[in-house]
Specification:
Layout (H helix, E strand, L loop, with lengths): L1 H22 L6 H6 L6 H12 L2 H14 L2 H30 L5 H9 L2 H33 L6 H50 L2 H11 L15 H12 L1 H4 L1 H8 L4 H32 L5 H11 L3 H33 L4 H25 L4 H13 L2 H9 L6 H18 L6 E2 L2 E2 H24 L8
Antiparallel strand pairs: 1-2
Length: 473
């Protein structure tokens, strides 16, 4: 396996170098470096969006989620992603129009321009930082677990994490967002190929799909129905997850930016539809891997299951390719989110372009180091930690959505709504307040609070303040 790993690793590194070289341009502007020239076509758009969305979290988190919680995981992610696709089609028209009006550099900066308040921009950035850095960290954590099992004693987990961060920083600093997009295309294809090879191998272990589910039923029947063996998939969890995931294009700047930098609306619509298909195709094999683990690795820890199912139970070339695929998936998410946070910082800065870019690149390095530290202390529940990240960033939806769809200056009440929900959610995560009230989960309560608040705000501004002349609803 070591030989295969070296061969595939060298090929992968060569592809990353080619992506960086192809993207490098002497004397390029800051917008070319940070926004890839805002001229991304449908094919690259599909691959970069998919690679950033379906990452190490999908490769590692979802098989283990299916293994532990059962087929309800399909509703948690695949169904939610399908709703997100339709939302992208609607949202892309409004956000691209608003981005053009306000000379887009980043979501935080655009909100400053729309609301006329720097405080709003700082709030949006703070939310992204607080919830995206841990999400990046769990990707690195997952890869470190896998690599430590692959090469026991070769390098400490922090060493693997540092190596991943270093590679990401090098090619992103050389080629900018365009290099990241090219590498995303490579990484997305590798992920898709590897996960299907292992998925098919998992089915072959049982002979066919029917035999697989029959064997799972013998081991733990609760895995094949809702709410699952641990009762996780109740209506509150599923609805809360759907809303949080559907809001990803709004509340996570790496995805909002990718919608905006595509060359035209037609390309965005093609991308959205293709992402829906990609979601089904990439999540399906994780069912097979998870069911395989439910039978063969029932009751063991995440590390033992992942190293066994994805590595040691596979032929040497497949195991080596799985390692490369995992590294690729982790790089894809890490660079997308860290670079996006850098872009958010840039959008909040003003002054000489060269000085702003120096500060931006320094901030990207600092964010990467913070993510590295978090990766060393984060837990193993990758899918649940990712869900917390989705929920946390969705608290900014009133500000961003209100700013995007309002034809006039949005009201401060939207800022109050988002800030209140943001603070309440943080308090619950630190166990300062309960995470449910009257048996209703806090995220469901917050979503209802935000939906009602935004609706009241828009109605009052339409019919009371403007006398019905503002058609922003």
């Amino acid at each position: 396996m070591g030989t295969w790993f070296i061969v595939f690793g060298v090929i992968f590194l060569i592809l990353l170098i080619l992506a960086s070289v192809k993207s490098y341009k002497r004397g390029r502007t800051a917008d070319e470096f940070m926004l890839a020239g805002s001229n991304i076509g449908a094919i690259l758009g599909i691959l970069t969006f998919a690679a950033a969305l379906f990452s190490a979290f999908t490769f590692l988190g979802m098989p283990d989620f299916f293994r532990v919680h059962g087929i309800g995981s399909w509703f948690f992610l695949a169904v939610s992603d399908s709703f997100m696709v339709f939302f992208i089609i609607w949202f892309s028209y409004h956000v691209r129009k608003k981005a053009k009006e306000h000379k887009f550099k980043g979501v935080s900066g655009m909100m400053v321009s729309i609301f006329g308040s720097r405080t709003v921009g700082y709030l949006v950035f703070a939310n992204a930082f607080i919830f995206l850095i841990p999400y990046v960290a769990i990707q690195i954590k997952g890869v470190s677990i896998f690599l430590e099992a692959t090469f026991p004693g070769f390098m400490a987990p922090w060493g693997w994490a540092l190596a991943i961060i270093t590679v990401m920083l090098i090619y992103s600093e050389i080629g900018g967002l365009k290099a990241i997009i090219f590498s995303d295309a490579i990484q997305g294809l590798i992920l898709l190929v590897v996960i299907w090879i292992i998925g098919i191998a998992s089915i072959n272990y049982f002979g066919n799909i029917s035999s697989m589910f029959a064997k799972v039923e013998e081991v733990n029947k609760a895995l094949l129905s809702l709410p699952g063996p641990k009762g996780l998939f109740n209506w509150q969890f599923l609805i809360g997850s759907l809303i949080a995931i559907m809001m990803i294009p709004v509340s996570q700047p790496q995805f909002t930016s990718r919608i905006i930098i595509m060359k035209d609306l037609k390309s965005v619509h093609k991308m959205a539809v293709a992402i829906g298909a990609f979601a089904i195709v990439v999540i399906m094999p994780t069912i097979f891997i998870g069911m395989y683990g439910a039978v063969k690795y029932a009751g063991v820890g995440t590390k033992e299951f992942l190293s066994g199912a994805l590595l040691f139970d596979q032929a040497a070339p497949v195991g080596a390719l799985a390692v490369i695929g995992l590294i690729a998936a982790c790089l894809s998410t890490t660079n997308a989110q860290i670079f996006a946070l850098g872009a958010e910082i840039r959008s909040l800065l003003s002054g000489d372009e060269k000085k702003v870019m120096v500060k931006t690149k320094i901030s990207i390095f600092i964010f990467a180091m913070i993510a590295l530290v978090f990766s060393l202390v984060s837990g193993d529940e990758l899918a649940l930690l990712a869900r917390v990240s989705f929920t946390g960033t969705s608290m900014m939806a009133p500000i961003i959505l209100g700013g995007v769809i309002s034809k006039s200056k949005p009201g401060k009440e939207l800022v109050i709504l988002s800030t209140s929900a943001f603070v309440i959610l943080l308090a619950s995560l630190f166990n300062i307040i309960p995470n449910e009230l009257l048996s209703i989960k806090l995220d469901i309560i917050l979503y209802a609070f935000l939906a009602i608040g935004v609706s009241v705000s828009l109605i009052i501004r339409k019919y009371v303040i403007t006398g019905g002349d503002n058609d922003e609803l």
